[in-house]
Every structure is written in C-alpha cells, then in structure tokens.
Write a structure and sequence with these properties.
- By secondary structure, the chain is an alpha+beta fold.
- The chain is built from five helices and twelve strands.
- The chain has helices at 28-46, 97-100, 134-141, 215-234, 238-243, and strands at residues 52-55, 60-61, 72-73, 77-81, 95-96, 106-111, 146-151, 156-163, 166-169, 178-180, 185-194, 197-206.
- Strands 1-4-6-7-8-9 form a six-stranded mixed beta sheet. A three-stranded mixed beta sheet has the order 3-2-5.
- A hairpin with a 4-residue loop joins strand 10 and strand 11.
Length: 252
C-alpha cells in the first residue's frame, strides 16, 4: 500500500521559479510596478486582513510535468484573493494550485509579439510535445475569471470574462474601460508620463472613472493641495489669520 508521504505533491520550494527566459520588452517591468502600486490601496480595503497575493512574472503551476516548468504559466501580473501573502514566513517562489486551490481572479499578459501566444487555445490533446495554449490554460485549467491581454505596440487591451466555462470578450464602457466588478475597479489605457517615459500604459480606475494613483502620484497631489491651501491663506489679512490661530510666519 502506498504511503501518504509518497503521494505528497511538490510545493513552491521544490519547483523551478524560472525557465531562464528574458523579459521581452523593457516596458514590462515598470508596467508591472505601476499595476501593483496603484491597485494596492483598493486591495487593502478589500482585504483588511491582508489575505491576498500579487504575482509579477511568476509561475502558476497547474499540472505535474517533466520537466516541471512545462506545467506552469508565468503571467506578467496576477492577483489572487483570500490567500495568505506569505507561506511559512517566506515569499512564494511560485503559485502552486494543488497546494492553494484558489485560482487568480485576474491575469494580465503584456504582449511583446503579435499576441498569438496569449490567444493560443490549443488543448492538451492537440499540443505537440506536451505544449498547451496559454489561453486554454487560463480558461479551461486554471479557470481565471478575468484575463487581460495588453498589446503594447497597439496601445490596446482585450479583457475576457469567464462565463459558462468559456471566455467571452468584454465590451468597454462609455469611458473605454473594462469593469472588473469583484474588485470595484476598471481597466483601460492611459497615455502619460511614468518612469521617465511618455507612453500608453495599462492602468486602473475606480468605478466612478477616477484614475487610481501610484504612491508617488498621491504624494505629488497632496503636496500640490497643501501649496494651494497655503497660497489661499497668504492672501488673507493678518487679522483673519490671527483669528484662525495661524501665525503668518508659519506660511513661509
């Protein structure tokens, strides 16, 4: 009789955390940082217990293969709700479905080529050499509710929603954004300056259409707001400032 220990499946510490390939586009890294930085305040509200995980160019293991990395997909960005941020006090090397069970709510791919890899829906029964289409894996194996394909060169994003076990291409709203209802946010393209580059960037908005800011942008906004308040106070007579308990010299 086979012992339980012999049936134990490998965890994130026992599986490769890279397949050795390079990032194909230099925009991918800052794009991933931008995506994470701006959504964090929303996720902190959704998860006051901090039970969530964000993956950036990290592997999601969904099947056992030889070599192991053939059983993983490595999205450029993904978010998993209601899982601990660390395992045994350590950051995950990868996300292993058979150990955690909870699928990502949304997966984002930043396309460097023509997008054929991201739209490949080849099932295991038809793939050569054990290769399976990325689209098929997210839709049929991992069952990610929202899948976004951002084509950098075209400055456009497609978002698919899993409905009745199949991906349906979403239509943008009047703001040309794609609502991600469980998160209470929208996804779309923003033309602007970030990380020393003026480019179209994939960004989040809230449900009212307000752009979600990065930490640096929030700091700039707060500083500008304080400066406007100080300028208004400087325009007041000294008597009014004294009545408000404000020392005019403090405004300098």
């Amino acid at each position: 009789m086979t012992s339980l220990s012999a049936l134990t499946l490998p965890d994130h510490t026992q599986l490769p955390d890279s397949d050795g390939t390079f990032v194909k586009n230099l925009q991918e890294h800052p794009q991933s940082i931008l995506t994470t930085d701006s959504i964090k305040p929303v996720l902190e509200q959704l998860h006051p217990d901090n039970q969530y995980c964000i993956g950036q160019d990290s592997g999601i293991y969904w099947r056992l293969t030889d070599p192991p990395e053939k059983g993983a997909e490595a999205p450029d960005w993904f978010y998993v709700p209601n899982v601990p941020p660390t395992l045994d006090g350590k950051m995950r090397r990868s996300y292993v479905l058979w150990k955690e069970y909870v699928a990502p709510l949304i997966v984002l791919e930043f396309v460097s080529g023509d997008g054929s890899e991201e739209r490949d829906n080849t099932p295991p029964s038809q793939g050569e050499g054990g290769n399976v289409g990325k689209f098929w894996v997210y839709e049929q194996a991992i069952r990610v509710p929202y899948y976004g394909i951002y084509e950098v060169a075209k400055a456009q994003v497609e978002v698919y929603h899993l409905i009745d076990n199949a991906y349906q291409l979403m239509q943008p709203n009047e703001r040309r954004h794609y609502p991600i209802a469980p998160m209470g946010v929208e996804l779309g393209i923003w033309q602007g300056f970030y990380q020393n580059a003026e480019l179209p960037w994939l960004r989040w908005w809230d449900a009212q259409g307000n752009l979600l800011l990065t930490g640096e942008e929030r700091a700039v906004f707060e500083r500008q707001k304080r400066e406007r308040i100080v300028e208004k106070l400087r325009s007041l007579p000294a008597e009014q400032l004294n009545a408000l308990g404000i020392d005019p010299e403090m405004l300098d």
